[in-house]
Amino acid sequence: MSHMTDLHTIRAGEQVIAVRKDLRVPMRDGVELAADAYHGVDDTPRPALIAASAYGKELQALALTTPPQLRPSPMWDGCIEAGDIARVVREGYVHVIGDMRGTGDSGGTMIGNYNAGGVPQGQDLYDLIEWVAAQPWCDGNVGMIGISYFGSMQVLAAAERPPHLKAIFVSGGHYDFYETTYHGGIMWFMPRAAREGRGGDSGIAHTDVRSRMRQVHGAEELDRLVAERLKDPDVAAWPNLVHVLRYPAHREFWFDIVMNPLDGDWYEERNPVNLARAIDIPVYLQIDQGRGWTVDGHIELFDVLKGPKKLDIGSYPPMQSRPWVEEHDAMFRWYAYWLKGVDNGIMDEPAVSVFVEGSREVVTAAQWPPKETSHRSLYLRPRRKLSFEPEHMGAEHAAPDGFYQAPLTVTDEVEVLAWRTAPFEEPTELIGSGAAHLFAEIDQDDTNFILRLWDEAPGGARQLVTTGYLKASHRELDEERSTEGNPYHPHTRSVPVEPGSIEEYVLRLYPFAATLLPGHRLVAELSNDEPLADAHNALLPPDAFHLPVGRPVTHKIYRDAAHPSRLVLPFTTTGGAR
C-alpha cells in the first residue's frame, strides 16, 4: 500500500508548526500503522513524544483548534487525550500521534480489548517507537504522552522494553482491566462510552475491530453463553445490554466485557499491572482524586515498578479537561531531565506526592501511604449515627435499618441510607484505603452494595471522599491477601446469597486522602444503585454509572452488639481522631 506523506506547515497563534501527515509505519508482520508528526519548522532532530490510541489521530488534532472543555460542558469529549500539540512543539519535541491497528487510518485487525487475542499492542508500540527513533527529525530519545487509554498504552509499550523509549509520563491510565470494568463485581458503564461512542465520548475509531469471544467460540457455543448471561436479571432489565448481547456486531469490545463478569485468564493475560513488572525505565504516575479505582490502579502499578518512579496524587475533581492540557508542567520537567539531560532537580524530590482534600496540603514521602496510619472503626449506630463507640444493645433493641429498592424500570427514585458522625472538633486526617463491614439481610439471591463517603461542611455543602462497591454474590474474600482496612476479593466466581440470611459483606473503600475540618461531618451513604445525577456524578461523563439491580430487593442493615457494622478507616497517627 503506497501513501504519500504530506509535509506542510500550520499556524497556532504566533507559532508555526511543521506537520507530517499520514506517515506509514511498518509493523513486523507487514501491517502499516498511520501517524502524524508535529514539530518545529527547522530541520533540527528533536526528542519525540508518542501518543497512540484507538480513538483516531484526527480527533486529537482538535487540540489545535478547540479550547479545553471541563465537565459538565456538553462539548467535553472524553477521547481527546493526546495532549497540547502546540505546547509540545513549543517545548522542543516532536509530537507523534498514531492510530492503533484496526482503527483510524491504520491497517490490520484489533481483536479484543487491548488486542488480547490478536497482535499484542505493546509489540506494535515497540515497532512504532523504534521507527520514530530512526527518523531524521528525531534525535533518538523517545518518551510518550497522553492520558487514560493513551496512558495504558504507555505501560504496555514500556513493558516490551523498546531500546529508545527512555521514560514515560502516565496520567489517569487504566491498568487492571477487570477492575476498570467491574467495580466490586458491579459492571461500570463508562468503558461502553469509550468503545461505542456514547455519553460525551467519540469512542473507538473502528475500522476492523473484532470480538475475542466471537473469535474463540463457535456460533452454537456463543449462543449458549449469551443465553446464560441473559439469565442475570440485572442484564436482562437493561435494554442496551440485551441489544449488545443479541447484536454484537459494531459493539464487539463492549460485548466481550459484558460476557465476562468474572476475573480470571480473560483479563489477566495482558493485564498491564502484571506486564509492568518488566519495566525498568523511569515512570511518572499522576492521578487526581474522585475516581477511586484509578487512584487504586496507579498505586498498584507504582508498587510493582522497579526503576526510577514517581507517584503524584492530585486534587479533586476527577476529570481533566478535553482536549487534555493539565499536568504538562510536571511532564515537561520529567522529560527535560530524562530526554534532554537537563539537571533540574526533579529526582532529588520525594517519590510520592499526595494532595490532601480538606486541609489542601501536599504531603510528600518515599512511599504510599505517605504517613504512618492506624485503622480505626466508626460504627453504624441507631438514629443514623456514626460513632467511634460500638453499639451495646442486641438486635431486639437496636433493630436494623432498612430500605426497599424497586428496579429502575418502575421508579426513578434511588433509596439511600445515610449515617453521620458528630461534627469533628479538630482537624482529622485520613490517608489510605479502608473497608466497610456491613451485616445485611436481603430477600433475593443478589444485590449491589454501593457505599459513598462524603465530607459534609456545616452549611450542607459536600464533597465525595471515597467509594466502595460490592456485588453481594462476589462477597468471597481472599483471607491471605486481605488485611485490616484493605480487603481483597478474587471475583473469580459468583455465589448466590441465601435470601433471609444475615451475611457480613466487606466492601473495599478505594484509596483517598482527606482532612475533616472542625465542624465537618463524615457521611456514609448506602444504596444498591447510585443516584444518576448529583454533585459528584455531574463531574463525570454521562455514562459513568453502574449497572442497576434489575429486581426488587429489601435490605436490612444490622448494626447491633452481635453485628458490628462499621467503617474501618486509615487515620494518620499525627492527626486528631475524635
UniProtKB/TrEMBL annotation:
Transmembrane segments: none annotated. GO terms for molecular function: dipeptidyl-peptidase activity. Residues 332-568 form the Xaa-Pro dipeptidyl-peptidase C-terminal domain. The keyword Hydrolase applies. It comes from the Bacteria. SUPFAM superfamilies: alpha/beta-Hydrolases, Galactose-binding domain-like. InterPro entries: AB_hydrolase_fold, CocE/Ser_esterase, Galactose-bd-like_sf, Xaa-Pro-like_dom, Xaa-Pro_dipept_C, Xaa-Pro_dipeptidyl-ppase/CocE. Pfam families: Peptidase_S15, PepX_C. The keyword Hydrolase applies. Keywords: Hydrolase. Residues 477-496 are annotated as: Disordered. PANTHER family: COCE_NOND FAMILY, PUTATIVE (AFU_ORTHOLOGUE AFUA_7G00600)-RELATED, PEPTIDASE S9 PROLYL OLIGOPEPTIDASE. NCBIfam families: CocE_NonD. This is Putative peptidase.
